Amino acid sequence: MKGYQFSKFLPNELPKGGFDEMLKLFTQLLNYTAGDAGEALAWMNELDKQYKFTNNDYGMGDFIEDLKEKGYLKEENGETKITAKTEQTIRKSALEEIFGKLKKAGKGNHNSNISGIGEEKNADRREFNFGDSLDQIDMTASIHNAQINHGIGNFTLTERDLEVEEKDYKTLTSTVLMIDISHSMILYGEDRITPAKKTAMALAELIKTKYPKDTLDIVVFGNDAWPITVKDLPYLQVGPYHTNTFAGLELATDLLRRRKTHNKQIFMITDGKPTCLKENGRYYKNSVGLDRKVISKTLNMAAQCKRLNIPITTFMIAKDPYLQQFVRQFTEINGGRAFYSSLNGLGEYIFEDYIKNRRRTVR
Questions:
Q1: Are 346 and 271 in contact (CB under 8 A)?
Q2: Cα–Cα distance between 292 and 295 in angstroms, integer?
């Protein structure tokens, strides 16, 4: 019989004191409190009692005053709220967390990007081939190769020594990120909405800083679907909703129709099956099994997206076999992709897939 051995939990991400370290913890807690500054500070007080990361020289009161003076907190109608500067800090923190993991180690099954005579340099290198342009040659690396191959006494540079920098085709991409905010996203003792929010914030910050000509729209869906802005993400919460996937796809498709780019795609983060439709102003709901009426309309929407050349990438957080079977059918009809990802790897999967799609050649 297997047993379990318990040991004392020793957190390794608690601050060691000082404003910068404590700010990192504060921004992390804001993800879990849906942007509620008062609740996040209350949690910090409780953590400080247990782990003592403040001291006689710098206490929680000093930290709160610094937050106000540096523009991270404001008083509004007698309530302490975060500012736009804090919202951007949360997005940057999410980007560093997710993109940092991606750079350290990729997933391994999404790394087949198309390279060649493009416009944006990437990290790939190869030997010179007939037809390569001269501006692709990395002269520093080529001279280094020549010294290794022929020695430095009598310098010789041959075609075999030339090393070429690969470049990616520069494409513009319009993406809609759909986030399921139905009640099941916080059921069963698992917080699924926070990783989804952090991924959305990180993706928005990546596009804003690295691919500013790309577009990102964010759609949330429960009983209905509606667009939100990047500014709304820290405050996003799950509601007492069913899952109207059809409405989310319909809105996402409408948003992408207005974009004038060639590359269009939908990323959908969900943990459950479609359970809801809205017909003639009334909700049709059925949470038991796979309702034929709801599933049929959802699959028809997937087929419509295919006709519009809009692939859907589904990031499924649930592992139920019958739900995975539905996702496989949905993906086959749309011609898109599906990943059954864990919450820990969600951000890296989405980032890798976004960058891969952005590098494809549009013909």
A1: no
A2: 5
User: What integer pLDDT is reported at residue 168 of this predicted model?
Assistant: 57
Report the C-alpha gap between 50 and 307 in whole angstroms. 57
Which is more confident, 319 or 176? 176
**Three-class SS of residue 72?**
coil
**pLDDT surpassing 90 at residue 334:** yes
Continuous H helices in the chain: 19-32, 37-51, 60-69, 84-104, 139-150, 193-210, 245-257, 292-307, 321-334, 346-358
End-to-end CA distance of the chain: 60
Question: If phi over 0 gives left and psi between -120 and 50 gives alpha, with beta otherwise, what is residue 44?
Answer: alpha
Written as six digits, the tokens of 172 are 């513009």
pLDDT at res. 116: 33
Beta partners for residue 228, in sequence order: 218
**Residues 252, 232, 40, CA angle at the centre, nearest 5°?**
140
Q: Maximum Cα–Cα distance for the chain, whole Å? A: 84
Q: Count Cα atoms within 13 angstroms, Cβ side, for 298.
A: 22
- Cα–Cα dist 352/358, whole Å: 10
Q: How far is Cα 64 from Cα 60, in angstroms, rounded to an integer? A: 6
Position 39, amino acid:
E
pLDDT digits (tens, 9 = 90+) for 34-64: 999 999 999 999 998 988 888 888 999 999 9
Return d(Cα 297, Cα 279) in angstroms, integer. 12
CA distance 62 to 181: 37
Identity of residue 42: A
In degrees to the nearest 10, what's the CA dihedral of 82, 84, 86, 87? 100
Which residue, among 97, 164, 177, 98, has the nearest Cα to 132 in the 3D structure? 164
How confident is the model over 81-105, as a mean pLDDT? 81
Q: Do residues 79 and 317 make contact, with C-beta atoms less than 8 angstroms apart?
A: no
- Mean pLDDT computed over 13-37: 86
Q: Residue 82: helix, strand or coil by DSSP? A: strand
What pLDDT was estimated at residue 11?
54
